[in-house]
Amino acid sequence: MSLQIRRSILKSYDKTVKARKFASRSIQWQWSHENGLRDGNAHFAHGNQCSEKTLLYSLIPNRRRIRLALPDNNHAGPSASMFIRLKYIVRLWAHRIRLRARRREKIFVIGTNKTGTTSLHGYFQACGFLVSPQWDFEQLADEFHKGNHARVFELIDLYETFQDTPFSLANVDFLNELTERYPQAKFILSVRESSDVWYQSLMRFHSKAFFDGRTDVTWDDVKRVNYVAPGRMYQSIKRIVGDESTSPYDESTWKSFYEGHNQKMRTYFAQSPNFLEVDLSDPSAQRRLSAFLGTDPAIPIPHLNTSR
Fold it and tell me: What domains appear along the chain, each with residue ranges and CATH number?
């Protein structure tokens, strides 16, 4: 192998791993997609901080995921390290080639959480799309809110369908970037029957997942939640609610956020043929979704991550 080819491989490896390796240093808890759903609700396994030996971030979702354990620096020689790098790059390139050969346009679910986004995730899997792993994007939330979208787009390039953070919080600037980079992409605004139904679903889910079933949640309670990273939950809610002068789950504030987000999406994509608004509780949802995406109309939409 020539020196130029070796340099090209290492450069590609370093560029890709740099975008994901940070996760192994900062993860406070791990989520296993294969074992992470219990009775329809996400089950999060809390654990110690991961090391590079434990995890080199997975690239391919579901059964196609790549999981490579990096050897300890004290036990692996240069040849072993180089072999792992080459193995990683070969699989990464094979994935990219397969992705390009499929020639499927990106699909972005831009509805807020608790509007059936997990059910759509399952539907995309059943239809054979390369579904993005939500955990990767959760790790980039802080960068995204600071306006740094570079690593978000590196991940987008590896998959075909996307939902939840940061797409559920998309602003006009981010939508402009998405539509400019992927002009044929399709956008799905998932909604609930009403803002009241959505708010009650959100409250039930957060109450069970983070507050032991309590609904009288205070800001101190929110600050103690260790979701993705310490303080992440607090920052996320504060972006929506504002200051701490009101309850962190003030009903009128959250309903206003939900309705405002939906109206912003409708206005942005007005008259666009690549936009679909859908309520999964509507009996026509499966037919409309199939027609919009060109998928098999016989594939049902699963009901996942229910808050009841």
Answer: 3-100 (no CATH), 104-308 (3.40.50.300)
Q: For residues 268 and 175, is the Cβ–Cβ distance under 8 A? A: yes
The two structure tokens encoding residue 289? 């979704």
Q: For each of the chain's 308 residues, which pLDDT tens digit applies?
A: 555 554 554 455 454 444 444 333 333 333 333 333 333 333 333 333 333 322 333 333 433 333 333 334 444 445 556 666 676 667 666 666 666 666 678 999 999 999 999 999 999 999 989 899 888 899 898 899 999 999 999 899 889 999 999 999 999 999 999 999 999 999 999 999 999 999 999 999 999 999 999 999 999 999 999 988 889 999 999 999 998 999 999 999 999 999 999 999 999 999 999 999 999 999 999 999 999 999 999 999 998 867 66
- What would the 3-class secondary structure string for the chain be? CCHHHHHHHHHHHHHHHHCCCHHHHHCCEECCCCCCEECCEECCEECCCCCCCCCECCCCCHHHCCCECCCCCCCCCHHHHHHHHHHHHHHHHHHHHHHHHHCCCCEEECCCCCCCHHHHHHHHHHCCCCECCHHHHHHCHHHHHCCCCHHHHHHHCCCCEECCCCHHHCCHHHHHHHHHHCCCCEEEEEECCCHHHHHHHHHHHHHHHHCCCCCCCCHHHHHHCEECEECHHHHHHHHHHCCCCCCCCCHHHHHHHHHHHHHHHHHHCCCCCCEEEEECCCCCHHHHHHHHHCCCCCCCCCCCCCCC
Q: Are 80 and 150 in contact (CB under 8 A)?
A: no
C-alpha to C-alpha distance for 270 and 155, rounded to whole angstroms: 28
